[in-house]
Write a structure and sequence with these properties.
- By secondary structure, the chain is an all-alpha fold.
- It has a domain of 54 residues.
- It is 83% helix and 0% strand.
- The chain is built from 3 helices and no strands.
- Helix 1 packs across helix 3.
- The longest helix has 32 residues.
Length: 93
């Protein structure tokens, strides 16, 4: 029973960390590109999606930035900025 409780707490903690990291990345990306944030939920979603896109893109290009928090932050921010630029281009047309 204790194993299940520990797994549940670990899952919740992981989701909280994902939301905080995604929110920070999304907020910074939206400040860089748009000049304002997208709101809390929008920034979190942008940061999470940017992390996925950035991680995939860096791996596809053979770029490695390390395993630290900064090593995860750089591709995530790059992916979020790229997503915002694509959205901006699509909305313009």
């Amino acid at each position: 029973m204790e194993g299940l409780l520990g797994a549940g707490i670990g899952l919740v903690l992981g989701l909280v960390i994902l939301a905080v990291f995604g929110g920070i990345v999304g907020w910074l990306a939206s400040l860089l590109i748009k000049g304002t944030g997208l709101g809390l939920f929008g920034d979190i979603l942008l940061g999470i999606a940017g992390s996925i896109v950035g991680g995939w893109l860096f791996q596809a290009l053979g770029l490695a930035v390390g395993t630290s928090v900064l090593g995860a932050f750089i591709p995530a921010l790059g992916g979020a900025v790229l997503l915002l630029l694509i959205v901006k281009m699509v909305r313009r047309n």
